[in-house]
């Protein structure tokens, strides 16, 4: 028996459109992003993949994307499980900064180290910064776990407890699971599933609003490495655009 997992990055956000590092800042979708979410839901219908349960982050762009996609698929009624562990990577002091200006100011190597290295986080964000989440009530229970910056290694470490105790039990119960999340929290899941090396994960980019479907065996191993995008050509083009952000 295989288990179906659908990974969906939120549609284009207001800060994707402005090319700003976003991380935990809770920006909304653009109209284009809303359209991508609906189209993603339609792709699921066309492929006959109907989620039974949805997992999202605590961030508006993922929550709204999940709602719009599921509404388009007439699945707006399925159970929802939310966790901060699916949030975007906390981008530290880069939150709110322009990606192009950051590249110009710090150079290619530093920019790519901050953006795609496995274990080097950007400098931490001060709690007094306008883009800090230190006083945000939705994270009030996190205490010392509230990040001030994260690298992908950190994201994997905080994502895995939700994967193990939230997503895997739903898959094992026979549910088709939709995870609506973010570029880097989904890169963390894909790295975990596909066993991608710490170096090679730098080259993996996830496009907005495109369902990525994995069939998993009983050990939660993918039957096809990398899963499959329902629209592979559009996904490859959009992933290349993500890779080139800042240029
Ligand atoms: O938080 C962000 O800025 C984006 O959602 C992901 O950005 P990245 O592709 O630069 O890591």
Automatic annotation (TrEMBL):
Residues 116-143 are annotated as: Disordered. Its EC number is 5.4.2.11. Catalyzes the interconversion of 2-phosphoglycerate and 3-phosphoglycerate. Substrate binds at residues 9-16, 22-23, 61, 88-91, 99, 115-116, 183-184. The gene is gpmA. CDD domains: HP_PGM_like. It holds the Pfam family His_Phos_1. Belongs to the phosphoglycerate mutase family. BPG-dependent PGAM subfamily. The active site is at residues 10, 88. Keywords: Gluconeogenesis, Glycolysis, Isomerase. It is an enzyme of class 5 (isomerase). This is 2,3-bisphosphoglycerate-dependent phosphoglycerate mutase. The record marks 182 as: Transition state stabilizer. It catalyses: (2R)-2-phosphoglycerate = (2R)-3-phosphoglycerate. InterPro entries: His_Pase_superF_clade-1 (IPR013078), His_PPase_superfam (IPR029033), PG/BPGM_mutase_AS (IPR001345), Phosphogly_mut1 (IPR005952). Gene3D superfamilies: Phosphoglycerate mutase-like (3.40.50.1240). The keyword Metal-binding does not apply. NCBIfam families: pgm_1, PRK14115.1, PRK14120.1. GO terms for molecular function: phosphoglycerate mutase activity. Pathway: Carbohydrate degradation; glycolysis; pyruvate from D-glyceraldehyde 3-phosphate: step 3/5.
């Amino acid at each position: 028996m295989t288990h179906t997992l659908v990974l969906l990055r939120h549609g284009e956000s207001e800060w994707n459109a402005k090319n700003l590092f976003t991380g935990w800042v809770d920006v909304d979708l653009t109209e284009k992003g809303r359209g991508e979410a609906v189209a993603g839901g339609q792709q699921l219908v066309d492929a006959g993949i109907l989620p039974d349960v949805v997992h999202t982050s605590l961030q508006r762009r993922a929550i709204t994307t999940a709602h719009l996609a599921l509404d388009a698929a007439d699945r707006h009624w399925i159970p929802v499980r939310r966790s901060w562990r699916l949030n975007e990577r906390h981008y530290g002091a880069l939150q709110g900064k322009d990606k192009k200006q950051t590249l110009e100011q710090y150079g290619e190597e530093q920019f790519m180290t901050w953006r795609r290295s496995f274990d080097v986080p950007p400098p931490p964000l001060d709690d007094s910064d306008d883009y800090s989440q230190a006083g945000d009530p939705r994270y009030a229970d996190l205490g010392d776990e509230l990040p001030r910056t994260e690298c992908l290694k950190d994201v994997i470490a905080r994502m895995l407890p939700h994967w193990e105790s939230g997503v895997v039990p739903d898959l094992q119960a026979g549910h088709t699971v939709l995870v609506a999340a973010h570029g880097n929290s989904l890169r963390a899941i894909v790295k975990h599933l596909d066993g991608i090396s710490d170096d090679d994960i730098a080259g993996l980019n996830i496009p907005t609003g495109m369902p990525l479907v994995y069939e998993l065996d009983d050990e939660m191993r993918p039957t096809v490495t990398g899963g499959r995008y329902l629209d592979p050509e559009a996904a490859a083009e959009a992933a290349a655009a993500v890779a080139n952000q800042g240029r």
